[in-house]
């Protein structure tokens, strides 16, 4: 969040109710995705084991060398599928987080809380509050103006330009931030905090690798009945 600030050393310490509600919603979504990942992992591993058995049987019928190659191919595909599934789940968490954060950061209450906790505001009460907002937020002008006036007793001036960031200015002091950048940073932090999903990701990947290694090891130790018969004939 601090990286998006250009004029102030730091953003005021915000902790509004709607932000905490968003965090709880994201935590519930992470838990749901973790359950989904565990279920998908079990299904994927069960499918890989069935494929391993089928390929093992086919190897005895089609020729051992060809069967081994086919087994390696099938199980490698299962491994790649598990990795794609893990990547898909991670992306779903990020997309969900950004969607919720986009909604939160787009609310005028967030700007209101920001002005209310801006330390500079206490020493500049006689100055007009100048706000430069993105053009796409112009439809919320009345609500934005009302929210700012609840926090600022003096004059409030709001202008709109084709930009992505907000700029609040009181005399020579300015506070500038980009909700899009904050959204990206917070969603990445959220993904790190989804420890359960990360564990499922690692378990899914490790289990697929072990299935591949164990199956190939077993097949390499079992002699080919056809080849054994040929040796006996000699």
Class computed from helices, strands and strand pairing = alpha+beta
Task: Give the amount of beta strand, in percent.
Answer: 5-15%
Q: Could you name the ranges where pLDDT drops below 50 across 5 or more consecutive residues?
A: 1-11, 224-234
Radius of gyration: 29 Å
Summarize model confidence as the mean pLDDT: 69
Amount of helix: 55-70%
Largest sheet: 4 strands, mixed
Coiled coil: 23-58
Keywords: Coiled coil
Report on this model:
By secondary structure, the chain is an alpha+beta fold. Among the domains are: about 90 residues; about 70 residues. Helices cover about 70% and strands about 10% of the residues. Strands 2-1-3-4 form a four-stranded mixed beta sheet. A hairpin with a 2-residue loop joins strand 3 and strand 4. Helix 1 runs antiparallel to helix 2, helix 1 runs parallel beside helix 6 and helix 3 runs parallel beside helix 4. The radius of gyration is 29 Å and the shape is rod-shaped. It starts with 16 loop residues before the first helix and ends with a helix. The N terminus and C terminus are likely disordered. Keywords: Coiled coil.
State the gist of this model.
The protein has helices at residues 17-62, 64-105, 108-116, 141-151, 179-193, 195-221, 225-233, and strands at 129-134, 156-161, 166-170, 173-177.
List keywords for this structure.
alpha+beta, 4 strands, single chain, 234 residues, disordered C terminus, 7 helices
What is the secondary structure topology, with strand pairs?
Layout: H1 17-62, H2 64-105, H3 108-116, E1 129-134, H4 141-151, E2 156-161, E3 166-170, E4 173-177, H5 179-193, H6 195-221, H7 225-233
Parallel strand pairs: 1-2
Antiparallel strand pairs: 1-3, 3-4
């Amino acid at each position: 969040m601090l990286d998006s600030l250009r004029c102030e050393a730091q953003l005021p310490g915000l902790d509004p109710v709607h932000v905490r509600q968003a965090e709880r919603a994201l935590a519930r979504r992470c838990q749901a995705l973790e359950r989904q990942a565990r279920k998908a992992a079990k299904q994927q591993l069960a499918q890989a084991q069935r494929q391993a058995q089928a390929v093992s049987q086919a190897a005895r019928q089609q020729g051992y060398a060809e069967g081994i190659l086919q087994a390696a191919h099938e199980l490698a595909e299962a491994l790649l599928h598990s990795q794609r599934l893990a990547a898909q789940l991670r992306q779903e968490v990020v997309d969900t987080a950004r969607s919720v954060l986009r909604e939160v950061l787009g609310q005028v209450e967030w700007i209101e809380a920001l002005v209310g906790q801006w330390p500079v505001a206490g020493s500049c009460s006689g100055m007009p509050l100048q706000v430069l907002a993105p053009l796409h937020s112009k439809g919320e002008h009345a609500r934005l103006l009302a929210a700012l006036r609840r926090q600022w007793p003096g004059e409030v001036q709001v202008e709109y330009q084709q930009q992505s960031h907000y700029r609040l200015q009181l005399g020579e002091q300015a506070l500038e931030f980009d909700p899009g950048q904050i959204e990206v940073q917070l969603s990445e932090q959220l993904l790190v905090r989804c420890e359960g999903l990360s564990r499922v990701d690692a378990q899914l990947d490790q289990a697929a690798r072990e299935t591949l290694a164990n199956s190939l090891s077993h097949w390499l130790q079992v002699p080919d009945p056809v080849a054994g018969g040929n040796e006996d004939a000699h």
